[in-house]
Design brief:
alpha/beta; 10-stranded mixed sheet; 29 helices; globular; transferase; glycosyltransferase
């Protein structure tokens, strides 16, 4: 029989056990081994049944067992020690508190998904896991972050397989009262709400749930409240579900409602008000509009408010292709803003202009969330060096006239939160080697370029650890495979073969990720005979563990899953290759450590970063990857292999897959399997173990989320805070007025004459050429602009590469026609074809980049002809 109503019955803990409740409600337990061990010891069977979730565990432990623990002095001593450790973690000084003054008092970090722990399933893939790792690393470093997201009642889908291998989706209902969450309440005990106005006089209300991620509060908005109509209740039903209007409402609630939730949280708790707002991908971009509306309500006009908001905003793009960006119909967006809907004080035309695709090839009738994110943020970044380059090229049209390398999008390469992803066995080895505190600091704070102590670990210990992790994965795979086959309809009598699946002494390759086409799940199947030979090699076999989810609406991705599953179902190879459904954090934490090689073969350059290989590396797993994302940046033959790419512009996609698959097979046959199976004098694979050492010592410190968050603080958050403080209301008005004046006057700016002291078309290395440039500034003054000489080596089309920029100085005042003479030296510091040009840019001390206004003036063709532009 089915219940007609559901309650959550909370246990009443005896007084000595009350600290267990605080420990369970702070998600630090998800990356703190001592806390998890304490909960497990309370009731090992209940812990396993609760899936390692302390909140669910406390609801399962029998009262008699609680009474027994309340009188267990040894358990109480452990409880006191763990509770004291948490208190010290939450209140003590950490890295951020030891830095120089001037850092932001608080940073609000907005993301559509957060992967903190499997016990709070609010993520779909890499974006959410990255956001969760960002929060956890910020907590470890003491960075005063406030996370903001949505609470999805169905989370992302759970995946099973049909008998014929087709992906099936299930959406279990999540009860917030059974999750590690508390509801934010007003002083009178009523739930705190945020409200959004909808067209037609309707309203969207949302409650605010709080997840405590160590030191970092995470606010999650939930629209499933009784005051909403049925449609509005479903706004936060599932992650990345529904049609355009549903997604638009989700993103309005995340951005606009999220800012209101932050204001409410700070009002109720006294938390410092954020000076910096970080938009993690375009989904949360509307947060800038809400902050503009706040300032307009305080007396600023739109343009001044826009400048003030931009100064304190950071935007991170994770998307290497335009198709991955949310774009909405302009009319749909227009209906949801203005006098009859949300933000009535802002002209709808100004809202729509922020998301307009003004670059060549842009769609005039679409509203682009990433474009809005870039226009509302003074600082923007991609998530690896290569992705930063791809992003600059992708969005270069927003800064016409500038070369892609000058587009103001930098990069901060992602990292992963080592305490979450490093296997307990690896952590114990590190603790034995350097001590508990040094091991914790090395994994969380980072800061060292290498972990030299790895060199002192005996080869035998490393190899035994790798086998232990591989064996643990083999047992996990068999258990999950048995569960999957039962879900597919198989009886126990059919499943005896599973006991022989995988071998703890065989080279193990892992491949697990989302399944869009560009990640090429089935590239390994390109030549099935050759793959089969690798799997069944009599002396050097390999075994492969594969996992991944296709988007529910992506039938092409589902076909790829089915193709892989059907191959893995073949009785000839099913003991050597497996597909595990329902890939998530819990599976990943076993999968990464247990693999010897982590495979990644996307279409370059479509992988923005690809952090799964980082998590594998922290456990001594070697990477085998296309040079894309982070691997393009940090690959060395010392600790992995690069799959050659056939990415020429004219390459046929099928041919490209054939070439790159063949290269993958060659690497496995000729370099990887021989190295794994060869043995030295002590019977150990010496060269393989040395690669594991190099992975840990050289790569380990780089891939840390602690390194990533420190870079965000130093390079983005601190400058954004300084800019935010500089933009007082009066200063913001002045800057907005200056920009308007410069834009209006810019058509009158020109380069009228260029001359050089060079008398011949050749010159010697190290020589200096004098430049004299006459410019017309129209209604502007020399204080409004910078005149620059841009020089460097030139190609066959006289395009300057690897440019050097030198500002020229005015030589006197304007003449009667308003023209100003500029002078400066041009140093010829490179041999070969060399050239220069002149350009004029707007200049103001509060601009974060010379390209910020997207304005530039260069010499006309007539001026160029007499300037001696190229020296050969």
């Amino acid at each position: 029989m089915k219940a007609i109503r559901r309650f959550t019955v909370r246990p009443v803990l005896p007084d000595p056990l009350r600290p267990l409740s605080d420990l369970a409600r702070n998600l630090r337990w998800s990356w703190h081994a001592e806390t998890r061990d304490l909960f497990q010891s309370a009731d090992p069977e209940a812990w396993a049944a609760a899936g390692g979730d302390p909140v669910r565990l406390l609801g399962r432990v029998r009262p008699a067992r609680l009474a027994e623990l309340a009188g267990d002095r040894r358990f109480l001593r452990r409880l006191t020690a763990v509770a004291d450790d948490l208190d010290d973690y939450l209140t003590g000084e950490r890295w951020y508190q030891t830095q120089a003054d001037g850092l932001p008092a608080a940073i609000a970090y907005f993301s559509p998904e957060f992967g903190i722990t499997a016990a709070l399933p609010q993520y779909s893939g890499g974006l959410g896991i990255l956001a969760g790792d960002h929060l956890k690393a910020a907590s470890d470093l003491g960075v005063p972050l406030i996370g903001v997201g949505l609470l999805y009642r169905h989370g992302y889908f759970r995946q099973t397989l049909s008998r014929d291998g087709w992906q099936q989706e299930h959406y279990p209902v999540l009860d917030p009262n059974e999750l590690p969450l508390t509801q934010l309440k007003e002083p009178d005990g009523t739930p705190a709400h945020v409200r959004l106005a909808l067209p037609g006089g309707k309203e969207l209300r949302a409650r605010i749930w709080l997840a405590q991620v160590g030191r970092v509060p995470l606010l999650l908005l939930d629209s499933d409240v009784e005051e909403n109509d049925l449609v509005e209740r479903g706004v936060t039903d599932r992650l990345y579900g529904g049609g355009s209007e549903h997604r638009l409402l989700q993103e309005m609630l995340l951005g606009i409602g999220g800012v209101r939730a932050v204001r409410t949280y700070c009002r109720l708790t006294g938390h410092p008000v954020p000076e910096v707002f970080h938009t993690n991908e375009g989904h949360a971009g509307f947060l800038g509009l809400e902050r503009i509306a706040e300032l307009c309500a305080g007396g600023l006009d739109f343009d001044a408010a826009l400048e003030a908001v931009r100064a304190g905003t950071v935007f991170t793009t994770h998307t290497p292709v335009p198709a991955g960006i949310d774009r909405f119909d302009r009319d749909l967006v227009g209906r949801h803003f203005g006098p009859d809907a949300e933000l009535p004080g802002i002209d709808v035309r100004r809202v729509l202009e922020l998301g307009r695709e003004t670059y060549p090839g842009g769609e005039p009738n679409l509203f682009n969330m990433a474009v809005m994110g870039l226009r509302l943020a003074q600082r923007a970044n991609g998530v690896s060096l290569l992705h930063g380059q791809v992003s600059r090229e992708m969005f270069a049209g927003l800064w016409p006239g500038f070369d892609a390398e000058e587009v103001p999008i930098t990069s901060v390469t992602n990292g992963v939160h080592a305490p979450t992803w490093v296997a307990p066995e690896v952590l114990r080895m590190a603790t034995r080697q350097v001590g508990a505190q040094r091991a914790e600091d090395a994994l969380s704070v980072g800061g060292s370029e290498r972990w030299d102590s790895v060199e002192d670990i005996p080869d035998q210990d490393i190899w035994e650890l790798r086998r232990t992790l591989r064996e643990r994965l083999v047992l996990e795979v068999r258990e999950r495979l048995r569960t999957s086959w039962r879900q597919r309809g198989a009886g126990d009598a059919e499943l005896g073969w599973i006991d022989g699946v995988l071998d703890p002494d065989v080279l193990t390759i892992g491949f697990a990720r989302r399944v869009p086409s560009y990640k090429r799940l089935t590239l390994m199947l390109r030549d099935r005979d050759r793959l089969t030979e690798l799997l069944l090699h009599p002396d050097r076999p390999v075994q492969i563990v594969v996992a991944g989810k296709a988007h529910p609406a992506d039938d092409g991705g589902k076909r790829l899953v089915q193709e892989l599953v059907r191959f893995a179902d073949d009785p000839r190879v099913r003991h050597r290759i497996v597909f595990l459904p329902d890939y998530g954090m819990a599976m990943a934490q076993r999968l990464y450590p247990g693999c010897d090689v982590w495979l990644n073969n996307p279409l370059r350059p479509l992988e923005a970063c690809g952090t799964s290989g980082m998590k594998a590396a922290l456990n001594g797993c070697l990477n085998l990857s296309v040079l894309d994302g982070w691997w393009d940046e940090w690959f060395q033959p010392d600790f992995g292999w690069a799959i050659p790419t056939a990415d020429g512009a004219g390459t046929d996609p099928d041919h490209r897959d054939d070439v790159e698959a063949a290269a993958l097979y060659d690497l496995l046959e000729q370099r990887i399997t021989p190295r794994f199976y060869e043995r030295g004098r002590a019977g150990l694979p010496d060269r393989w173990i040395q690669m594991v050492r190099r992975t840990l010592s050289l790569l380990g410190p780089k891939v840390l989320a602690g390194r990533m968050v420190r870079e965000y603080v130093d390079r983005l958050y601190a400058p954004a805070a300084r800019a935010h403080r500089a933009l007082t209301p009066d200063t913001a008005r002045d800057l907005a007025g200056w920009k308007a004046r410069v834009r209006a006057a810019w058509p009158g700016v020109s380069v009228d004459h260029v001359e050089t002291t060079a008398t011949t078309p050749t010159a010697e290395l190290g020589a200096t050429v004098g430049l004299r440039v006459r410019v017309a500034l129209g209604e502007l003054t020399p204080e409004d602009v910078e005149v620059q000489a841009v020089s460097g080596r030139v190609d066959e089309q006289d395009r300057i590469t690897d440019a050097t920029v030198v500002p020229l100085k005015p030589a006197g005042t304007a003449d009667l026609e308003g023209r100003v003479l500029y002078e400066g030296p041009l140093s010829l510091d490179r041999t070969g074809p060399y050239g220069y040009t002149i350009r004029i840019l707007p200049a103001h001390p509060l601009l974060a980049s010379p390209a910020e206004l997207g304005l530039m003036t260069i010499p006309s063709e007539e001026v160029v002809e007499g300037a001696g532009v190229v020296l050969r």
